[in-house]
Amino acid sequence: MRKFYAKLWLEFAEEDLESSRALWERGLIRTAAYHLQQTAEKSLKALLILQGVEVPRTHDIDKLIKSLSDFYVIPKDIQDAVNLTEYAFTTRYPDDYVPLSEKEYEKAYETALKVYKWAKGIIEGTALE
Fold first, then answer.
1. For residue 21, what are the CA distances in angstroms to 4, 13, 28, 31, 39?
2. CA–CA gap between residue 60 and residue 1 (Å, rounded)
3. Domain range summary for the chain, segments of one domain joined by +
4. pLDDT for the residue 93
5. Using an 8 Å Cβ cutoff, are 46 and 4 in contact?
6. pLDDT by residue (tens digit) across 6-49?
7. Distance in angstroms (rounded) separating the CA atoms of residues 19 and 68
8. What is the DSSP string of 19-40?
9. In the chain, helix, strand, coil percent, each to 5?
């Protein structure tokens, strides 16, 4: 049952990733960045579910990665996802908004994609844990 729910969370993460790209292509930069953070967050939470850990109510990628380090060796490029945490906040409210360049978006997209693929590989049994 845990694998079923982990896959469900991963489906939501994939939808966030796809939504981000579609929004970016329409020029909706702030919302696109938010969905990248959500991709990483939901991917990491899927791995916690797979391990039977109750999903914490947090947007803090660093906190999620630290929780996962009890179960997995966290690759450096996955650890870099901590930088996505800011998009959970700086993209949602006018007072916190920080403009995002195309280069920054592409880097964030690649990071979110790596997290998603890493989690998917573990959940589907095709990645080293």
1. 26, 13, 10, 10, 12
2. 26
3. 2-123
4. 86
5. no
6. 999 999 999 999 999 999 999 999 999 999 999 999 999 999 99
7. 26
8. HHHHHHHTT-HHHHHHHHHHHH
9. 70, 0, 30
What span, in angstroms and rounded, lies between the C-alpha atoms of 23 and 32? 5
CA distances 104 to 12, 93, 108, Å, are: 23, 19, 6
In whole angstroms, how large is the CA radius of gyration of the chain?
A: 14
126 vs 129: CA distance, rounded Å: 9
Q: Is 77 helix (H, G, I), strand (E, B) or coil?
A: helix
Nearest to 36 by CA among 74, 79, 75, 86: 86
d(CA 109, CA 125): 24
Distances (CA, A) of 78 to 6, 19, 42, 113, 122: 18, 21, 14, 10, 13
The arrangement of secondary structure in 2-123, i.e. its CATH architecture, is Up-down Bundle (1.20)
